[in-house]
Structures are given as structure tokens and as C-alpha cells.
Design brief:
- The chain is mostly helical and 209 residues long.
- It has a domain of 144 residues.
- Helix content is 59%, strand content 3%.
- It is built from 7 helices and 2 strands, in the order H-E-E-H-H-H-H-H-H.
- It has a two-stranded antiparallel ribbon with strand order 1-2.
- Helix 4 packs across helix 5 and helix 4 runs antiparallel to helix 6.
- The longest helix has 38 residues.
- The radius of gyration is 19 Å and the shape is globular.
- This is Vegetative cell wall protein gp1.
Length: 209
């Protein structure tokens, strides 16, 4: 029996009036310079793609969170290769995996104060740490994709680090390119899949209590 993800959308109660329009999700809070300082983000980085309630992920001169980074990668992959392609499907799965990894680590951290049994605390703590190590792997993968993006930007006559059209397509070629980072990307995705399965098997019951 498959467990429902805790992050799934709650169902509207049956008592709700059928004419009631569904509530819009709350707007994503806008990141400020104070948020950037709190997370030690260097001055001058673009904050428009970052939800400050989430861990920041930096790529060239922009700050993302797991969801906005996954969306950015997916959108550029679809632009570059088309929607119904194996690479677009892979980018879509990467987006989902990034959301799951960040969401589960955040949930585990929020639940830690109420976990009483020491062995359970140790178990969840181990998963938080291994989840953070996976995030570090993601940052290394992004770093490996940055150099060709910078070169593409310079070819376009831009000295500053900007996520322009050339840089976006160059990033897709880099992260999913067979002669570039595809192997590292596939291994990273496989690591998150395994982490997800182990997290669900070992931590889900503890976090529900």
C-alpha cells in the first residue's frame, strides 16, 4: 500500500459549498536584502527566483530554491529540446526529486524538537545530514555547469554573470550532455531516488507521531 505524501494537496471538505471557488495558494514571500544577508548571499545576486523560507541555491548571479531551480531547468530544457522529449522528461523528474529532497529535509528538521526517543532522533538526524550532503552534490554539479555558461554569456557580449538565453541553453547542454555532466546528473538523481525510498521506509512513521 502506498502512503500518501505529506506534501500532497489537502482535499476540500465535503461540507464546502460547491459554488465556493478554490482558494489561491498564498503568494511566495519576496526575498529581501536582509534575507540575503542572513543566508550570507553575496551582494548583487538576483533574488527574484528565491523563496526566502527555503534554503538558497546559487547559480551564477541568481539565487533559487529547490522548486524554482527545478522549474528553471525544466523550462529551459523544454525551450531547447521541446516538451515531449526524453530530456524534458528527465528534467521534469529532476524538478520533482529536488522538491521531494528539500521538502523532506525541511519537514524532518521541523519535527526534530518533538521526537522523544533517542534512537528515532538519531535516525532522523542521519537522514537530515545525508539529505544535506545530496544538496552539496547538487551545488557541485551546478558549479561544473557554470564555466560553459559564462563562456556562452561572453560570446553574447555580456561580461557580467547573467542567466540569459545563451547561458540557459548552454546549461541544458552541460547538465544533460552525454559528453559533459549527464553521467553525474543521472547518478545524482539515482541517489535522491534511493534516499527518498529509505526516508519513507525509516522516517515517515516517526514524523507522523
Amino acid at each position: 500500500r502506498r502512503r500518501r505524501q505529506s506534501s500532497s494537496t489537502p482535499q476540500r471538505p465535503n461540507s464546502a459549498r460547491p459554488t465556493a471557488s478554490p482558494k489561491k495558494p498564498p503568494p511566495i514571500p519576496k526575498a529581501t536584502e536582509a534575507d540575503a544577508r542572513k543566508h550570507r548571499i553575496p551582494p548583487g545576486y538576483s533574488l527574484k527566483n528565491w523563496d526566502p523560507s527555503e534554503e538558497p541555491i546559487m547559480l551564477l548571479g541568481s539565487v533559487f530554491d529547490a522548486n524554482s531551480l527545478g522549474k528553471w531547468i525544466y523550462d529551459w530544457t523544454v525551450y531547447h529540446h521541446g516538451p515531449a522529449t526524453p530530456i524534458a522528461d528527465m528534467a521534469g523528474e529532476l524538478w520533482l526529486l529536488l522538491i521531494q529532497l528539500a521538502g523532506k529535509v525541511k519537514r524532518a528538521e521541523e519535527c526534530m524538537p518533538r521526537i522523544r526517543k533517542e534512537e528515532n532522533r538519531d535516525m532522523v538526524e542521519d537522514f537530515i545530514e545525508s539529505g544535506e550532503r545530496l544538496t552539496d552534490k547538487l551545488k557541485k554539479l551546478l558549479k561544473a555547469c557554470e564555466t560553459p555558461m559564462l563562456k556562452a554569456g561572453r560570446r553574447n557580449g555580456k561580461d557580467s554573470a547573467q542567466l540569459g538565453k545563451n547561458a540557459g541553453t548552454e546549461f541544458v547542454d552541460s547538465i544533460f550532455g552525454r559528453d559533459r555532466q549527464l553521467d553525474a546528473t543521472e547518478k545524482f538523481m539515482a541517489s535522491i531516488r534511493l534516499w527518498n525510498l529509505r526516508f519513507d521506509a525509516n522516517c515517515e512513521e516517526i514524523l507522523r507521531r
